[in-house]
Amino acid sequence: MVNALFFIYSWFIFVPLMLLATVVAGAVCLCLVPFLGPRRVARLSAVPWARLGLLLSGVQVRVHGLENVDPSRSYVIVANHLSQYDIWVLYGHLEQDFRWVMKQELRRVPVIGVCCALLGHVFIDRRDRASALASLEQAKQRLTGGTSILFFPEGTRSRSGELRPFKKGAFRMAQDLDLPILPVTIIGTREILPADSLRMHPGTVDLTVHAPVAVTGKDDAAVEDAMARSRAAIASVGEGYLELT
């Protein structure tokens, strides 16, 4: 009975409210970016939008390890990816100014695509390696004064909950720019909204920020080492929910 009532609430109350909130947040973004800049506008539009989505979904977020973040430093942030809810969790509670690396197809999403472009997020075409590298090269110029960049190094959501193999792009960027890597673990979003499902469930999510990882060297071995240490940190919480594969 409770599940049936939440399903009705999800479609007839939550969805209309979040569509309205998305339009309002988008209007704030469009109007204010030319005057206040992406960093301040994200705080005024995207962060409240994400937190409202979590609140209306019945999702509580427990944050651990924020003492590992220096707001004045820039990082290459790497996080595991379990659900679309990861976006709201990170945007709403990581408390770090960052730019997403997201697939090109999201640019076409009404309101969200335009606002992401205005806020400086990075769209990459995963089918075109040269274009993707060019987009990342342009993004490097934005990583100053506490602005970070966020990757899902698995490349896509894990449908099983196991931690998928990492791609090297984030770690090469950290090496090129001499930036620390900030590993982040998200636990619980897969239960909130499983992959390939539109049925939400209220619950609790744990967001854990780990100690930064340095890329100690300029060769490929240093990239591999930083990637392995970051992956181990991300997999170190969750009591077996995330398993190294």
TrEMBL record:
All copies of the Phospholipid/glycerol acyltransferase domain together span 75-189
* InterPro entries, alphabetized: AGP_acyltrans, Plipid/glycerol_acylTrfase
Give the superkingdom in one word: Bacteria
- Catalyzed chemical reaction(s): a 1-acyl-sn-glycero-3-phosphate + an acyl-CoA = a 1,2-diacyl-sn-glycero-3-phosphate + CoA
Gene Ontology molecular functions: acyltransferase activity
The family database entries (Pfam families) matched by this protein are listed as: Acyltransferase
| Pathway this chain belongs to | Phospholipid metabolism; CDP-diacylglycerol biosynthesis; CDP-diacylglycerol from sn-glycerol 3-phosphate: step 2/3; Lipid metabolism
Keywords linked to the UniProt accession? Acyltransferase, Lipid biosynthesis, Lipid metabolism, Membrane, Phospholipid biosynthesis, Phospholipid metabolism, Transferase, Transmembrane, Transmembrane helix
Annotated TM spans? 6-36
Under which EC number(s) is this enzyme classified? 2.3.1.51
Q: Which family does it belong to?
A: Belongs to the 1-acyl-sn-glycerol-3-phosphate acyltransferase family.
NCBIfam families per record: AGP_acyltrn (TIGR00530)
Question: What domain comment accompanies this record?
Answer: The HXXXXD motif is essential for acyltransferase activity and may constitute the binding site for the phosphate moiety of the glycerol-3-phosphate.
**What name is this protein filed under?**
1-acyl-sn-glycerol-3-phosphate acyltransferase
Species this protein is from: Alloalcanivorax venustensis ISO4
